[in-house]
Amino acid sequence: LLEAYPVTYTTFDNYDFGNTQGLTLTYDLRRTGNVTLRASYTLQFASATGSSAGTSLNLVNSGEPNLRVVFPTNRDQRHQFIATFDYRYGAGKEYNGPTIVNTQIFANTGLNIVGNLGSGSPYSSQRNATGDAFINGSGTPQLEGSINGSRLPWQFNVNMQIDKSWALNFGKEGKQKQAMLNVYLLFTNLLNT
User: Which of 73, 78, 130, 162 is deepest in the core (most CB within 10 A)?
Assistant: First the structure.
């Protein structure tokens, strides 16, 4: 904000800065029999003077001074747990599943489940509802607390995939080539959370 004569005006420049620090711990169980398991926990702190290039501009346009204060960014998810479970049958001599009349019915078939649990991301709470999403918005937003000082609730999501692969042979005898055809069913947000 420049106090100029005869009219005060603003200029745009991005002087914001940010910092992200974190730690991830991972447990990886390589294929043991038919099972593969991977679990991880991430602790992260993401803070900056603005979540976007326009954050400071929004403060200045609302009549606030152009301050450089570090707040959590919109991407600051403190805790995240991810677990992946995979159960898969091999084919041929590696197959250990059920058979019907010497037919390996689950050969090259697998089940994969991914669970994701994360703490809520921050947002800026307002004292009054404003119509920013409406065509004719009215009212001026009034910040309640600090910028990104409120948190959304924890979120949990499970995705599941079932797949089966078939070997396809083509070409002349002696010069045969092989390709794999994989068909899968993917269920996103399995528990509808």
Answer: 73
